[in-house]
Amino acid sequence: MDMLPQGGIDRGSGVALWRQIADRLRQAIVDGEFGEEGAMPGEMALSARFAVNRHTVRAALAGLVEEGLIETVQGRGTRVRSIKRYTFPISRRTRFSEGLAGQFRDRQVTVIEETTVPASERIAAELRLAPGHPLLRLVLVSRVDGLPLSNSTNYFDAKRLGQMGAQVRETGSITRAYAALGIADYVRRSTEITARLADERERALLELKPGAVVMEARAVNDTPDGVPLQFAITAFAADRVTLSLGAPLEEPA
Amino acid sequence: MDMLPQGGIDRGSGVALWRQIADRLRQAIVDGEFGEEGAMPGEMALSARFAVNRHTVRAALAGLVEEGLIETVQGRGTRVRSIKRYTFPISRRTRFSEGLAGQFRDRQVTVIEETTVPASERIAAELRLAPGHPLLRLVLVSRVDGLPLSNSTNYFDAKRLGQMGAQVRETGSITRAYAALGIADYVRRSTEITARLADERERALLELKPGAVVMEARAVNDTPDGVPLQFAITAFAADRVTLSLGAPLEEPA
DNA sequence: TCCATTTGTCTATTTATCTAGACAACTCGA
DNA sequence: TCGAGTTGTCTAGATAAATAGACAAATGGA
């Protein structure tokens, strides 16, 4: 448990001690610090390590039990429940399902909201449309094996791609929805990544606790000859997803 | 202030109400919600909006004043201080200074630690060395215009690149340190990105408050003909940096 | 200058968190 | 079976956070 230094819990920060300990333990769990067995130090050991009362440690562990991350058994101790982290490659040819291929058995894309909105200056510029142009706005949640990984808000030219909502519902995939509308191929023009605390809606959709971190990716997809198709803002649950850039970056010759 | 819905502050989450409000306001500030003037709603309005007592709002604002993000003037109200966000492009040819070119006037790389460590299994594999091979480990902090943007831990083959520490200190740049050691060019093999709360050391080095979010990039650099040079783990302050993938991704022909 | 609006400061009470101590109940290896 | 080690539960007190109310002080527009 190298990442858990002696003490180091901040008082007066506005984050309860139990919460800070829970956050630290969660990070250690996500980082695989407790090995294959997942056996964690006992309450008294954690109490000594964090220099807090045992009850404070108990509160932290109770939080993690409630999150489903650990299980505690009286007399035996505390163990990490099996957790799964997914690596999502980002490239010019980013595809959700193909990107995660081999990492799951079942995948599901749910349309949460479908509305038509006027294009803001920013989105209009990205999609090379006039501000105010009607856009189809699709809010999606993507799950693998029942676990929500991302929540995205997607914008399409409503005049050209107004059927994307219906097609995503029918096919369960943006790639297949495009194909159904006659768009055989698309490529990622750009992606901007930042990170922050998840907001209320993201927490609800991704089943996250307050204080959870998301990586936000803002991306634009074009046809291979450069016609704008989609502007998307995607929040990935940072505890569950790693974004990977590497060898697949290079476009097939 | 669209991103600040009515109410929505969680009780019992282990994060104080004032802290949640401060986090929300900080995010709104970072997202540019308060416009060019930076004028924010008054305490009474925020109190109503978040459905908390005015003093709780005052505690939140005090936190942001202490961070230097805002200034409050009795009788006049609260304004955002000018903040700066940097966009850092990631490509095969990632270079810290060139990547941020045009976004700052002054840049500084500080060597925080220089040690020799045996290669772990993971790093040995990335650098194609034997586990236990001696590695030069350099901990760096990079600042622009005095603002710390990233904290990185870099690993080099100590036998081939043992002088990197001295050269980084002398030249203020990894690229120039490589050049001084006869390595004229290098490319990014892969990058993996995730995000989490900053740990204690990161907070100290990047001047962040408890609960701040960092984006962690794990990257490997090679020579153009594929000889491994460097394994680096970099924590970027998520409030200050956006990682950008896009047009510059394509390698010059 | 006046006054509406805003932040600043003080006192007081209630609620939440942290600490402390003690004992019960369970697990599992010797 | 015994006992060391572990988690579970209870009572109690101290400290921190949240709420409430009131009034002072400053700003800036009419």
Short description:
Chain A has about 250 residues and is α+β, with helices and mostly antiparallel strands. The first copy, chain A, has 9 helices and 10 strands. Chain A has helices at about 15-30, 45-50, 55-65, 95-100, 120-125, 160, 165-170, 175-180, 200-205, and strands spanning about 70-75, 75-80, 85-90, 105-120, 135-145, 145-155, 185-195, 215-220, 230-235, 240-245.
Notes on the protein architecture:
The structure is a homodimer of 253-residue chains. Chain A is α+β, with helices and mostly antiparallel strands and 253 residues long. Chain A has two domains: 17-80, Arc Repressor Mutant, subunit A, CATH 1.10.10; 86-247, Chorismate lyase-like (Chorismate lyase), CATH 3.40.1410.10. Chain A has nine helices and ten strands. The first copy, chain A, has helices at 17-30, 43-50, 54-67, 96-99, 121-127, 158-161, 164-171, 174-180, 200-206; strands spanning 70-73, 77-80, 86-89, 107-118, 134-144, 147-157, 187-197, 213-222, 228-237, 241-245. In chain A, the strands form three sheets. In chain A, strands 4-5-6-9-8-7 form a six-stranded antiparallel sheet. Chain A has a two-stranded antiparallel sheet with strand order 1-2. The first copy, chain A, has a two-stranded parallel sheet with strand order 3-10. In chain A, strand 8 and strand 9 (228-237) form a beta hairpin. In chain A, helix 2 packs across helix 3 and helix 7 crosses helix 8 (174-180). The longest helix of chain A has 14 residues, at 17-30. The radius of gyration of chain A is 21 Å and the shape is elongated. Mean pLDDT of chain A is 87; it is low at 247-253. At the A-B interface, helix 1, strand 7, strand 8 and strand 10 of A face helix 1, strand 7, strand 8 and strand 10 of B. Strand 10 (241-245) of chain A pairs antiparallel with strand 7 of chain B, so a sheet runs across the interface. The first copy, chain A, binds a DNA duplex (30 and 30 nucleotides) through residues 11-12, 14, 16-18, 42-44, 52-56, 58-59, 61, 72-78.
